Amino acid sequence: MKFATADLCDDFANEVTCLTPLFQHYGQKACFAGEIVTLKLHEDNTLVREVLGENGKGKVLVVDGGGSLRCALVGDNLAKLAIDNGWEGIVVYGCIRDSKEINTMPVGIKALNTCPVKSIKRGVGLKNETVHFAGTILKPGNYIYADSDGILMSESNLFEM
């Protein structure tokens, strides 16, 4: 799927919200879009692995890691899991690691930064909850559109309008 967020902003000005431009792009997939699946957690990526193990066709995983820069919530193994299960992309309000490897993979990931420290594994977090970061409220079932210019959120699928 190819699109430009700038064009979507022009064509759907009243339907989209632009996330504050805080995110870096990782992976070879230049743009991605899909229905939002949310996780809210803090420095524990157990649920990230669990959800990426599910069928992600047509979906984007949105991980609210509280903006923590102290550890990574996604690495190359989880990126591979996302690819294997058909996820359209991942947005992480936090860090990733293994960026060199991820940048060779056919995946699209937006994250605040990188950090080599792995997360804890306690299995604590919430799935499919409304999250708020980057000046935007993100709800499960809404839609994300991401490319090199930024990330947009819409309550409906713009490609079906």
Overview of this structure, please?
This protein starts with a helix and ends in a 7-residue tail after the last strand. The chain is built from four helices and twelve strands. The strands form two sheets. Strands 1, 2, 3, 4, 5, 6, 7, 8, 11 and 12 form a ten-stranded mixed β-sheet that branches. Strands 9-10 form a two-stranded antiparallel ribbon. With 161 residues, it is of the alpha/beta class. It has a single domain, classed as Ribonuclease E inhibitor RraA/RraA-like (Glucose Oxidase, domain 1), CATH 3.50.30.40.
What descriptors fit this protein?
single chain, 161 residues, alpha/beta, Glucose Oxidase, domain 1, ten-stranded mixed β-sheet, two-stranded antiparallel sheet, 4 helices, 35% strand
Using the alpha-carbon principal axes, give the shape.
globular
Q: What is the radius of gyration computed over CA atoms, rounded to a whole number of angstroms? A: 14 Å
Which CATH class? Alpha Beta
CATH architecture heading: 3-Layer(bba) Sandwich
What's the total count of β strands?
Answer: 12
User: Would you tell me the structural class of the helices and strands?
Assistant: alpha/beta
CATH superfamily: Ribonuclease E inhibitor RraA/RraA-like
Number of helices: 4
Which topology does CATH recognise? Glucose Oxidase, domain 1
The major sheet is characterized as: 10 strands, mixed
Tally of distinct domains: 1
